[in-house]
Amino acid sequence: MMQPGAGGVAPSALGQQPAQQYGQQPAQPYMMMPPPTAQAPAMWAPQSHVAPPAPQLPQHSQPASADEVRTLWIGDLQYWMEENYLYNIFLHTGEVVSVKVIRNKQTCQSEGYGFIEFNSRAAAERVLQAFNGTPMPNGAQNFRLNWASTGEKRSDDTPDYTIFVGDLAADVTDYVLQETFRARYPSCKSAKVVIDRLTGRTKGYGFVKFGDESEQMRAMTEMNGVLCSTRPMRIGPAANKNAGGSQQYSNGCQEALSSKGQILISAEMVSP
DNA sequence: GATGAGCGT
């Protein structure tokens, strides 16, 4: 027989209202700030904060074939941003099916990203367009949203040529950084300002990716010292993360190995 | 100041 108390539980596991305390956050973290300049497009969020025109940050194009893709990936989460926080942010859409923050199994600490599933692909896309790159309710950082990858490979055939950009002012966002470069380098694909997960604030450096190697090279010299927002950028080579950007070290490794070998050999020779 | 971040049961 059914337990009386458990009969009419909320459909979603999140239905049970979360006790809303997010670390240092005061009582109502979700109070959406009034739209700065927003005339609400009144599609699905009549009365709410419609963020400034979502900058066209690079996102994976929506997979056309897969009807099932209704989930967004969200990153750059601070540790205190848990399911209930995310859930309440998108609550007004009425179309959130589930929310999940990925945690480390040992420490149970957030890994800084999660997934938001909507009841339709269109709903997910609206959220993606409207929120991505706009300030999160806590005010410190911007939403970093994208389509969740469904295990299928992302269409990413082209190599990236990346540079490191330092000395960024506090107000430089991905969008600002990217536009700074895209104005001169059409192959500029994306820009990312690195965010401190503890504070949600910028670390003052970032990465810019180009599709064209010669533009990467040119940008390295031409853009060094150029103003971005209020500060001159300092540009350097990016440590090889995603290949492409710089030369492989295959030869270097061999040299290192052989010279190590030499050291060993000479050590043997030196020994009595 | 100083080299990310990225897909779960």
Automatic annotation (TrEMBL):
<feature type="compositionally biased region" description="Low complexity">
    <location>
        <begin position="16"/>
        <end position="31"/>
    </location>
</feature>
<feature type="domain" description="RRM">
    <location>
        <begin position="161"/>
        <end position="240"/>
    </location>
</feature>
<dbReference type="GO" id="GO:0003729">
    <property type="term" value="F:mRNA binding"/>
</dbReference>
<dbReference type="InterPro" id="IPR012677">
    <property type="entry name" value="Nucleotide-bd_a/b_plait_sf"/>
</dbReference>
<keyword id="KW-0507">mRNA processing</keyword>
<dbReference type="Pfam" id="PF00076">
    <property type="entry name" value="RRM_1"/>
</dbReference>
<dbReference type="InterPro" id="IPR000504">
    <property type="entry name" value="RRM_dom"/>
</dbReference>
<dbReference type="InterPro" id="IPR050825">
    <property type="entry name" value="RBM42_RBP45_47-like"/>
</dbReference>
<dbReference type="GO" id="GO:0006397">
    <property type="term" value="P:mRNA processing"/>
</dbReference>
<keyword id="KW-0694">RNA-binding</keyword>
<feature type="domain" description="RRM">
    <location>
        <begin position="70"/>
        <end position="150"/>
    </location>
</feature>
<feature type="region of interest" description="Disordered">
    <location>
        <begin position="1"/>
        <end position="63"/>
    </location>
</feature>
<dbReference type="InterPro" id="IPR035979">
    <property type="entry name" value="RBD_domain_sf"/>
</dbReference>
<dbReference type="GO" id="GO:0005829">
    <property type="term" value="C:cytosol"/>
</dbReference>
<protein>
    <submittedName>
        <fullName>Polyadenylate-binding protein RBP45B-like</fullName>
    </submittedName>
</protein>
